[in-house]
Amino acid sequence: MTSSPPPTTVHIPLSVFDKVTFDTHVALIYAYRPLNPPNITLELGLQKALSVYRERAGRYGEEDNGCPVILLNDESMRFVEASVDSTLDQAMPLKPLKSLLSLHPSLKGVVDLVQVQLTRFTCGSLVLGFTTHHHVADGHSTSNCVVAWGLACRGIHISPLPLQDRTIFSPRNPPRFEFDHRGVKFMNKKLDKIYPLDDNFMDRDQDIVVHKVHFTLQFLAKLKARASSMNGANKPYSTFESLVVHLWKGMCLKRVRNHPHKNRSQWRLNPRVPNEYFCCDRAAIMVNSKESNN
């Protein structure tokens, strides 16, 4: 028994959070040491993931009233295969350089909502360049899509499935008309005058700083052992996983100290926004505890 293909005339309206975020493509680069699966395996796995994340193979369009939507027309996406006559260590800089732009498709004049580039190196390493339009999803949702791709490549069922209902943000009952919800009001750039909580959190006048940290082998081994000791009989955490969690916890503690009353709306809203929500909810929505209870 075969099922009919899904209709290609369906569309998904953008939520208010999708519309307010950056109208641009964002690039991610993942580097993998050998051994790596062949390109055909990655391509077939991507096809399976796109059957679940159909927005990625769609296009932008408009409703009759002019509101932007994502057309689920299965128009496809750009898939590039490349090779480099050098090792990954030789090609990968220690600091961000323009040469990294060659590891993912161009971000200019793109109609595809997602692009992928597989770059092979002589050492057997693989760099996966992944670009996605920010209106389609934020970083968390994009990561979920990449993880689903990896599961499909290994023949594992994709779970959890993405929640793609962008209408879940229902109004209060009874409704309270306090704001113009049809528009967007951006905060003044001079945050130090109107939003003093950001004074110690981020100096927006400063350029991004690339800071190089050296961790000793002894420190990394101790960190990995401590993290794995809390994982029970499961597979021990890798050094990379242990270090990333260590750094992330430090960043979160810093943010909590500077924003003692701030929380991500996704986990504070009532009803709660599911983790598998595929949208831009996490882009920049911060509310305090009192607001979230309303």
Automatic annotation (TrEMBL):
Q: Which Gene3D superfamilies does the entry mention?
A: Chloramphenicol acetyltransferase-like domain
One family from Pfam that matches here is Transferase
Q: Which domain of life is it from?
A: Eukaryota
Q: Which PANTHER family match?
A: AGMATINE HYDROXYCINNAMOYLTRANSFERASE 1, TRICHOTHECENE 3-O-ACETYLTRANSFERASE
Q: Which family does it belong to?
A: Belongs to the plant acyltransferase family.
- Record protein name field: Agmatine coumaroyltransferase-2-like
Originating species: Ilex paraguariensis
